[in-house]
């Protein structure tokens, strides 16, 4: 280490930038007050690089320290837990920045910075974050390399740090696979703040889904064990809304013993990978039949998980395309025919006209769907506002709407005709990721449809949106999304290739992310023991032995590589001559390290008198090529031929 | 030219019996424009070698016998008052000759030694503010007794460095000694020697030696040797850059004598003991042993 009388300005700038990069993503996780406090300290230090006298003295540092402690205490009332711990490290890092005096302080700060970098993973484990942390660690390492270099050379320092990281990778992988995994104690996480996430709401007011519809956010992924059901059967069931006050639709509060549906038809086995969300809903394909804890089926045939939904979670479910839910009880019947008040004459007249109150419910359903189809109804994502009597205005005045409008109007009219009906919300369709062969369901796939109870058949799904906009349901291309991005409206032919390319890139990325989640993040103690037992490693003792053995062998290989790496000769002349030496070596004639070729030739000729001419020729040409002023390509060719022909 | 060199060597070997390698090295040193130091006990033919070379090269030759009371003026000359012309006149000393034999140089005091050594380095002599150039070519062959003998002032390392080579003669072998004992006196043999390589031709050869090719592979080997002496714990201090240049110059002359126009590693190895021995370990006369670790360990490139 070179002792410097004064710390290098460039090193300081390097260090401060690296620390800025490391702390930056914490802006999403730590209280804004603490983040601002840290920024203040960092900028102060930055100014101090040029204006030395502006750096705080001991007293001010002490006051800042007290401020930091007060700030921490006001936010967390303690030092335990993930958030408090992270904030403590960040504050300490900021304060330490103001008292860099010796090189020792630089080392201390870098180690603190490594801890803060690692703390990012307590909040986010995405592949992008991992890449970012690796990058900033690289910057930090380059800084450490620079401290110990004779001269500051940024590019060389980065190269060295990349080499260090690459050399460390095998050890990191071995540790990742073999290091015993311990479940994080709950106290580490108990005081974390819940973050609001977007998702389906548990009530519906036609129009309330419209913002979701445009969101491209991923909700869940599905990997099917066998065939993937066709698009028009892919209804991912969410909350069932039965109660309405004319404007809002909400879940009804009734307790009902669950009647297990009788399932028939094709079965689909699949794995759901839910993204973090707010509610503990799990969106299964209609109708889920086989599933394991922590999942339960509620009265609306919706899957509910008892686990915390703010982590990515994986569930295995089997669904059946055909089902019969059987009869309903009185309270359910009442809820399913509940109306906010006496329907208006106009509506009664419409129902009478379509239904006549005497034909069967099947007939009415068909008539109503036909009505939607034949009459001047339109499917749009930007319907006009309907504040008063939304259903009536929709049916007779505006006639522009999307799935919630059609579903709610449909259910309302059914109820007027005394047919039990309800609104089901959830997701419909999903896009197939061709790279990973799984479905991706995004917020834009949110949907609302209707369910009608029919004698002997139970609850039957009817999707009025399919009648008015069949392409919304049946086509693989999500028309909503395309309309939302105005791709349909814009010139189709020009934009399609770009759109397809974008789509492919997104699918590829999504696949990488999916596998990262499956193989890296979800690699917990359970999957670790499963994975290792397939190699015959069953208990923790064997695991630790394996870990030590693997790491020791990797280290040994790296040491050998670093110590015995000889620069390989690339000189053509030498390579050819070495072939000649190898031929002689087979007969025990080894050239000494300090032996000139001529001396060697003399020595060999005594042992092999009949080869004297060949040896002399080779030696002469070699000397000409290697030591003399003029040598040509022909000489090289001649050497090659002579060595090739040389036989003992 | 090579012919002349070989004839010269033949003639010399008839006088200096059983020492072809030493004779060859001595000539190589002269062709490389270097000064030669012969170190050995009295009576093994040091003076005869110098005398023989001077004769064969047709150089005017002067011997200076160094003693402990010799003064610088005895070597380089002095100004003497000329009464007739009423002025001081410089009388050149024995150093103003093409070949000077400094016999038993380590018997003289350091002051006298350095007078000669300055002349060797500068190729000129300055007396009372006036500079007198020495004749061309100018060679010094110095002999010295091993420093453990009584009444010697060993040459310091810095002055040993002025000599391109140091060679040891050693006792002749049995057969050579027998021939020596029955043959003519060496002195009369020397006197009757013809000139084999006149000074003009010598200068041409010296010019040609300069132009012998040195490839980068050979420079690698040369640097390998120099670095080895610097890194190895065998030697108190490694070879200086000047020593490196000396090594290369000597190797060029050796290659020329071997009728080649490019230096090969064997040339370096041949002259290494003579060139590097006295620079690595001054007090030790076993040059071959001194450089043996170098030859064994430094890989030929």
General description of the model:
The complex is a heterodimer of chains A (648) and B (301). Chain A is an alpha+beta fold. Chain A is 50% helix and 14% strand. In chain A, the strands form 5 sheets. In chain A, strands 9-12-6-2-17-16 form a 6-stranded antiparallel sheet. Chain A has a 5-stranded antiparallel sheet with strand order 8-3-15-18-19. In chain A, helix 7 runs antiparallel to helix 19 and helix 22 packs antiparallel against helix 23. The N terminus of chain A is likely disordered. By secondary structure, chain B is an alpha/beta fold. In chain B, 49% of the residues lie in helices and 15% in strands. A 5-stranded parallel sheet of chain B has the order 2-5-8-1-9. A two-stranded antiparallel sheet of chain B has the order 3-4. In chain B, strand 3 and strand 4 form a beta hairpin. Chain B starts with a helix and ends with a helix. Chains A and B meet through helix 21 and helix 22 of A and helix 12 and helix 13 of B.
